[in-house]
Amino acid sequence: MKKQKSITLLTTVFALGAVLAGCGGGGNAGGNAGGGGQAAPESANNSGGGSTGGALEKIVIATVGPMSGQYSDYGSTAKAGAEYALKQQKDKFKELGFDVQLLAQDDQADPKQAVAVAQMLISNADVLGVVGHATTGASITASAQYETDNLVMVSPSATGSNLTEEGKKIVHRICARDDQQGSKAAIFAKNQLNVKTAYIVHDKQAYGQGLADEVKKQFEKDGVTIAGYEGITAGEKDYSAVINQILAANPEMIYFGGYYSDAGILIKQAREKGFKGVFMGGDGYDSADLVKIAGAENANNVIFTSTVGDLTATEEGKKWIADFEAATNNKVGIFTSFGYDSMNVLLNGLEKAIKANDGKKPSRQQVMEAVHDTKDFQGQFVKVTFNEKGDNEFASVYVYKYENGQKVYVGEAK
């Protein structure tokens, strides 16, 4: 996902040496759960016990995304999963002689803030990898900084197709791209929902418009009539003008490319004006706040695609959820699972780089190359093989809907 709304830059402080105080961000997918601001890395353990026989050498892995503001669900839930994964593997790295610490940073889903965060991470020589960024707009601007110093990133959720089309060797993601998500959403709408006419709306931003463009392209290819194509300004409270145009066109479906905060308002106002058809969108809809904004009844028949599958589909997945919630006292949220798998992919690369470097602390380039060479890594929720661009060859797209105020899994989008 992506977000390009400019927000005043924060002053980000590295509070090295302080104990990381809880993940504070793994709330359920509907709330803006905790995570407000930056977290310090966990304090180094200088009590020995590693293969060096003395003090453990410090390595820092950063996790970056919106930890505050209206999009904090995305960053805070990914951070919660990444932190959980790291805690499970800390002892293994201590045996290798290293204290691997987590450093959480808030980019507010703002491309400008993402640059400031990236520059700070680059300036800290102990940072050898980044889980993030969570949104594509922020990922694109940050990746240009990371590229200058071979600092590898593994995003759990940045779906914009152009992120991996720019040729940066440090960029990786485990989720599907928007050209996959958009085209599969359109195919699902035509084949499963029997949609013949659709009105496409977007929020004029990289994520929303990019996704809408992919849907439009696939609809045109498949012969679905595009009744209209309009952009709205994100953050407004009254979308009557575009809703009136939609109602006049009388489409069977409205596809809106954007985030839940704007989608909720658009859905509520369109329903109040009499629209009875289907609403559809992407993973930006995946928040219980959409239901709160739109109203449970209005949210019925709202369908969205996601890059994250149903975690409760297997007994193993259910057990992982129970273990996570017991260990962290947090609920699993939208990107908790992919934050977890992204961290494990990065740690797998880090471990390989350490061993290839004769047990010594590797360089950023060595870690980047090890991560890039990831093949058939079986994560908890997704298998990962990176192609030359940094995309995951095993990434999939899934379909959900809201029903009586609850998110309901529909199935994999084919």
From TrEMBL:
PROSITE patterns: PROKAR_LIPOPROTEIN (PS51257)
A Pfam entry, by short name: Peripla_BP_6
Keywords tagged on the record: Amino-acid transport, Signal, Transport
One GO BP: amino acid transport
Domain Leucine-binding protein residues, every copy: 59-403
Signal peptide (residue range): 1-21
Region described as Disordered: 32-51
InterPro entries, per database record: Leu-bd (IPR028081), Leu_Ile_Val-bd (IPR000709), Peripla_BP_I (IPR028082)
Transmembrane domains' residue ranges: none
Protein's recorded name: Branched-chain amino acid ABC transporter substrate-binding protein
Organism: Brevibacillus composti
